[in-house]
Amino acid sequence: MPHLTVDDTTIYYEDAGTGAPILFLHGWGTSGRVWGAQVPEFAADHRVVVPDWRGCGRSGRPATGNDIAGVVGDLIELIGALGLTRPIVVGSSMGGAFATELALRRPDLVGGVVSVDSPGYWPAQGMDLPAIMSAIRGDRAGFIASWVPHWYAPGTSPALIDWTVRQILDSGTFADGQFAQFSTYDPRPVLPDLQVRIHYLHGELDAETPVAVARECAACTPGATVTVIPGAGHLPHQERPAEFNAALRVVLDPMLATV
Fold first, then answer.
1. Number of domains in the chain
2. Whole-model pTM?
3. DSSP character at residue 52
4. Rounded to the nearest 10 degrees, what angle do helices 94-105 and 68-82 cross at?
5. DSSP E strands, 3-147
6. Residue 104 to residue 184: CA distance in whole angstroms
7. How far is CA 112 from the centre of its chain?
8. How far apart are CA 6 and CA 10, in angstroms?
9. Where on the phi/psi map is residue 247: left (φ > 0), alpha (ψ -120 to 50), or beta?
10. Residue 133 is part of which domain span?
11. SS3 for 94?
């Protein structure tokens, strides 16, 4: 099992293919397995690296350091250890915020960002994270089982929803600490200073993070654009993989041309 140790925490990752690198980041509580429809597609002509961030999946469950700075620090170490030359960083949900923060803090390491249904900012989008934290503490299994179905568009396979719930329940509770910091997270004031090209890919029917959030973040960021995946909810790479992969291909070409 390939892994990297950062501050006594084991970070699991998968590394496939050759060519211009793409770094895929999953969302809260799941794992790199959510990119199962993207890895074989893009590893055919790119180097694809997919980590499980700390507290999730096959990585370690540290009691500390599970915040934005901790995960971004892990990514910096991973990029250096694997010799990735300015990868395009594709992040889903909370992973999109990590990708954006990595680009803001270390633009020299990043060739571009693709933010997939990322929260962008939470304080103004109507999600009560303190209430979510309280509900998770009170009945973790019950609340997650009732919450996750809303991440997906109507008609999504129950098997996919159940699999997502199982991944979250299998991950460590220390990843829950992310919610405390993200309850006040708002990058809009600094997005005008972003030196890395960013594109927002967003599910049309996302009920957790509406498309309007992506459009507002794009409006704050020089050169940013938005692509909407019809019929998809919060996780379009899983719900509409063929459409998502085609859209990502279109986004990657101009980004890679500038790296």
1. 1
2. 0.95
3. P
4. 70
5. 3-6, 9-16, 21-25, 47-51, 88-92, 112-116
6. 18
7. 14
8. 6
9. alpha
10. 3-257
11. helix
